[in-house]
Amino acid sequence: MNRFDEQVVLVTGGAQGLGAAMARRFAAEGAVVAIGDVNVDAAVLLAASLQEEFGRPSSAHEVDVTDSASVAGWVDEIATAHGRIDVLVNNAGIIRDNRIEDIGDADWHSVVDASMTGSFYCARAVLPHMRGRKYGRIVSFSSMSWRGNFGQANYVAAKAGIVGLTRTIALETARQGITANAIAPGLIETPMLASMNAAARDKLVSKVPQRRTGRPEDIAEAAAYLCSPGAGYVSGVVLDVDGGLGVGSSIR
């Protein structure tokens, strides 16, 4: 498929993990992909690989999503170079888990700023370009944890905030051909999951109705659909990609 032929797609936190999987999927479907990440060396390597493999322009940019000037400069650079911005994927984020009373000010702000504030900065920057063309897709990353999770008050607050932000963007842009949706991944094969000890990992997997973890490609598939022209009547939703974990937990 070439659903994104000639479209310009921005992916934050796109140098590795889920971001890299999505960048690859968009490039495979014909997109011009701009990867924004603080890890610019990894982003450069990925952009070069995508361009060589798929023959479409891909670029890497050092972007700190917690810095509004950094975000605005990146977006303006891409819009000037390509004349359009079609898709924004807000994927950047970090974790600093702890019990509420043990979360310091720095760990609170760093997590909320990277996920929620960064998503706001990026959406705010791209919306004028999308409104001007009366077309756009914004997908932001929440988590199955947005409903509440032990030891993750900062992360949960950020991911719940993304849900509210997404729904508001969807309302404010509904008449301009722009959609805004969120993805809430479950247990996906990422370096963070791989770093868990085997017992903790097995305990988590046992709670998934499908009894397995997801792959980054599962997330990329969901993002590609929500960002496609064919998803124009889908806006303001949170798509769980979790092997049934969200619904399964309600009957256990």
TrEMBL record:
List, in alphabetical order, the Gene Ontology terms for molecular function in this entry.
3-oxoacyl-[acyl-carrier-protein] reductase (NADPH) activity
What chemistry does it catalyse, as a reaction equation?
A: a (3R)-hydroxyacyl-[ACP] + NADP(+) = a 3-oxoacyl-[ACP] + NADPH + H(+)
User: Where does this one sit in the cell?
Assistant: Secreted, Cell wall
Q: Where do the Ketoreductase domain residues begin and end?
A: 7-186
Q: Could you give a single Gene Ontology term from the biological process aspect?
A: monocarboxylic acid metabolic process
PROSITE patterns listed in its UniProt record = ADH_SHORT
Q: Using the UniProt record, give the first listed, main subcellular location.
A: secreted
Q: Which domain of life is it from?
A: Bacteria
Pfam assignment, any one: adh_short_C2
Q: Which of UniProt's keywords are assigned here?
A: Cell wall, Oxidoreductase, Secreted
* Family indicated by similarity: Belongs to the short-chain dehydrogenases/reductases (SDR) family.
Query: What name goes with this protein?
Result: 3-oxoacyl-[acyl-carrier-protein] reductase MabA
